[in-house]
Design a protein that fits this description.
There is one protein chain. The protein has 320 residues and is α+β, with helices and mostly antiparallel strands. It is built from eight helices and 14 strands. A hairpin with a 2-residue loop joins strand 10 and strand 11. Helix 2 packs across helix 3 and helix 4 packs across helix 7. The longest helix has 24 residues. 38% of the residues are buried.
Length: 320
């Protein structure tokens, strides 16, 4: 643990009182200068630290700091996973694929405060501005990946929706296949990509990319009617807390992926079951009534009194 991490942990655990720099140094086995440098770095990272002559330092207030340290301290079920944090990156999925090809373990988490080339489904770009969103990718290596691959995207949607509902108190719903909505607008997009071994051609792992609109921001004009943030003003919930909650939830589901028990939750949170929808597949457009979601994540539709099952990646659905 670095000096900065040690000082942050100490200040977090003793935030009700001031502690002198010398006492912190003695308790942590650091030099007085190391404590001073650590406090300076923490302030630069955005932590609000009070410094009073003859009294010492105290961590003040709760700040929305997105960092490895803040995410890790909020992880409950998987606190030891590798975490890579970047203030800015081209794409967390791209970095995750690189790490997966280098042998990174399952659960490796790549997080960024902003992306310059974030991507969504069907090759679309994903708007990823600094300071208002959560952009992260998770490397997974479940057993029998080829058999469980169809469920990974739906599992991610369930993890996000459950975490948002439980952590943020919002009525998050899933729009087939894997978009998460609140009050009729999209707050999250998910992109799952397979990582293939170049020599054998086999799929060895998968990367789950998740982008969440957390705070109110200035969306591009083409997104204003369809996208929205979870919060329109500052919240007591931080981005690091929600990142940790989604990660814990998703890894818990992935651990038991073959049993498909999460599909019951997927159905209960569906935004489209028992709704009329407009389906677009290639150049064709047709209407149908959603009856259910099957065990493989397929959408069961009544189309002109004929039952059809639609699979992931074949269509785009839009509510009437």
């Amino acid at each position: 643990m670095s000096s900065k991490d040690k000082v942050l942990q100490f200040l977090t655990e003793n935030d009700s009182t001031f502690t002198s720099g010398q006492k912190i140094a003695d308790l942590l086995g650091l030099s007085r200068n190391s404590v001073w440098k650590a406090v300076k770095q923490l302030k630069e990272d955005g932590y609000k630290i009070e410094a009073v002559t003859n009294r010492g330092y105290r961590l003040s207030g709760k700040r929305d700091i997105l960092s490895e340290e803040e995410i890790r301290k909020n992880l409950v079920s998987f606190p030891s996973i590798p975490i890579f944090y970047y203030p800015e990156i081209d794409s967390t999925n791209k970095k995750a694929r690189e790490l997966a090809n280098s042998g990174a373990q399952e659960g490796t988490l790549i997080v960024a405060d902003s992306q310059s080339a974030g991507r969504g489904r069907l090759g679309r770009s994903f708007y990823s501005p600094k300071g208002v969103g959560i952009y992260f990718s998770l490397i997974i290596r479940p057993r029998a990946l080829s058999d469980t691959a169809p469920f990974i995207t739906t599992a991610a949607a369930v993890a996000v929706a459950k975490a948002v509902r439980e952590k943020c108190g919002k009525d998050a719903r899933i729009k087939w296949v894997n978009d998460v909505y609140i009050d009729g607008k999209k707050i999250c997009g998910i992109l799952t990509e397979a990582v293939t071994d170049m020599e054998s051609g086999t799929i060895e792992s998968a990367v789950i990319g998740i982008g969440i609109n957390f705070y109110s921001g200035s969306f591009p004009e083409e997104l204003r009617d369809i996208a929205a943030p979870i919060f329109t003003e500052k919240s007591s919930v931080t981005r690091s807390e929600l990142t940790a909650a989604v990660t814990d939830e998703l890894l818990s589901i992935i651990t038991n992926l073959p049993d498909r028990s999460f599909m019951q939750t997927y159905r209960s949170l569906s935004l489209v079951i028992d709704k009329d929808v407009i389906c677009r597949r290639g150049n064709s457009t047709f209407e149908g009534h959603v009856l259910d979601v099957d065990e493989m994540g397929g959408l069961i539709l009544n189309v002109n009194n004929k039952i059809e099952t639609l699979r992931s990646g074949e269509i785009t659905l839009r509510l009437k």
